[in-house]
Amino acid sequence: MFNSVTVSAISLKPIKWDKPANADKMEMLFLEAAKDNPQLILTTEGVLEGYVVMDVVQKRRTAEEMLAISESIDGPYIQRFQKLAKQLKICLCFGFAERIDQEIYNSAVFIDPDGQICGKYHKTQLAEGTHSSWPFNRVGKRLRAFNTSVGRVGIVICNDRWNPLIARTLVLDGANLILIPSYGSKSKAQNQAVLARARENGVPIIEANVGMNLVISKGEIVAYKWGNDQITTATIEIPVSTSQQAARLSEQEYLQYQQPEMEKRYQQTVNRFQSGSS
Predict the structure, then answer these.
(1) ∠170-198-25 over CA atoms, to 5°?
(2) pTM here?
(3) Residue ranges per structural domain of the chain
(4) Do 233 and 222 meet the contact criterion of CB atoms below 8 Å apart?
């Protein structure tokens, strides 16, 4: 049993350290994507501030500068997109550098069509690693799915996609849809990794990567687009949550197919025997 949901992914390439420009561009692309009437729109990792952490790791900019440009979960830019989600009546999901006190996390937020925050996620696998002396690159410690209007969602950020345990844990927590905001590899290997995560877990995956969008449903790629700032819209099939009721409905659907199919196969068998004996 599945629920059909129309989704859009946006391969938005942000400008580093230019939060106002990135927010304006994101809003413009969300409005454009909304013309396809999706129920959910996803865009990239670190899209608000421009994914600037490596500038700090490599000491081109300071941790204080990153703290200043980061955003709290109740900050004005998050509130701006809560209002937009409510205006559009569409779920919005995007990545940003989240400030919690004096620490910063690579985060993603999910906003429902009423403008409410359903959930958020902190990246748990950092390609560059982290150190206790880095308040600007804290690592997430929780893998939790959350309920939304389109199903129970798990978020995996960029490098997390390489680790099967992360997606598997989210699915074991009830996720029947995985979202991947990314700012990373666009290689064949990354596509294969995302496809593997979908097939291992039997759930659709939407990835919005800088320079590439990828949508997988029922274990197959249903949409793929290369290039920055591209909008990709597709329909995915989200499996319903397991239950006796869902199992019995699926059973009945199969049994309605079973009898005419067996009759058809029987007739094909008879025809083969008759043609063989003539």
Answers:
(1) 80
(2) 0.93
(3) 2-241, 243-278
(4) no
